[in-house]
Amino acid sequence: MIRRLLWLFGALIALAVLLAVAFWARPVEFFNTYSEFRLLRAGAESRSTTVEGFRVHYYVLGPSSGPPVVLVHGLGGRAEDWRNLAPYLTRAGYRVYLPDLPGYGQSEKPVGFSYSVPDEAGVVVGFFDALGLKQVGLGGWSMGGWIVQRIAVDHPDRVRKLMLFDSAGLAVKPDWNTDLFTPANADELSRLDELLMPQPPNVPRFVAADILRRSTRNAWVIRKALASMLTGQDATDRLLPGIKMPVLIVWGELDRITPLTQGVTIHKLISGSQLDVIPYCGHLAPNQCAPQIGPNLVVFLRK
Q1: What is 27-302's CATH number?
Q2: Helix/strand/coil (H, E, C) string of the chain?
Q3: Model-level pTM?
């Protein structure tokens, strides 16, 4: 009996050591797995479909009979970025779809794709078609907000209500170094965090190293998307006054990536839109400030 207990204790120690080594080597994988686990625990299902010949991964959660809501992540993001906000919608009875855009998350990363805003918008509309979604509540964050603006303009019949979270899209040149979206060293990663969050955490060196490793691997997609966006040819300034469906604009008060002044401009350009400013929050407001956003988001959708 004692020998068996000692063997079990030794096995547990060995397992703990292996997990610690694995975490030290690939901490981002652990964080990503935890984010996915949180969505799955909230009732999400991980699925995929084919759009324009590409495999598009998505999560779906909430009652199958609920009104559909589609949320589109931003540049360098993924479906799991909505993990804190989506449950507010599902608890209110909505059927929520969280796609990974081509090039991001668990979706295919086709080399020949443009990664431009109009082409990503075309994929999202194709996603509607693939799943039989005739009309949806449509939300987008940062670059995702730019994408859903284009959908609202080009396919107004498919969008019941529009939600923009710290959205890009205006013809405004960033006053920060866009190369930081593909950081090459720990200093650049720290500077990016300072842009994204008002009070960024102190990232341990081994975690930063793993983030940089993954950033290097996926940098080509982000550079291609940025190169297209920075031309300004797809800016939506002149298109926004044509949006007629109800629009909710949610903005982190301390956003440095897309400053609040841009949210105010979008609000002025879209007649009848609602602007909610979230105090003390930055560009990551839909994730980090979900408790301040979720209840009002539900109220907007229910109106």
Answers
A1: 3.40.50.1820
A2: CHHHHHHHHHHHHHHHHHHHHHHHHCHHHHHHHHHHHHHHHCCCEEEEEEECCEEEEEEEECCCCCCEEEEECCCCCCHHHHCCCHHHHHHCCCEEEEECCCCCCCCCCCCCCCCCHHHHHHHHHHHHHHHCCCCEEEEEECHHHHHHHHHHHHCHHHEEEEEEECCCCCCCCCCCCHHHHCCCCHHHHHHHHHHHCCCCCCCCHHHHHHHHHHHHHHHHHHHHHHHHHCCCCCCCCCCHHHCCCCEEEEEECCCCCCCHHHHHHHHHHCCCCEEEEECCCCCCHHHHCHHHHHHHHHHHHHC
A3: 0.91
- What span, in angstroms and rounded, lies between the C-alpha atoms of 121 and 140? 11
Question: For residue range 71-119, what is the model confidence (pLDDT) as tens digits?
Answer: 999 999 999 999 999 999 999 999 999 999 999 999 999 999 999 999 9
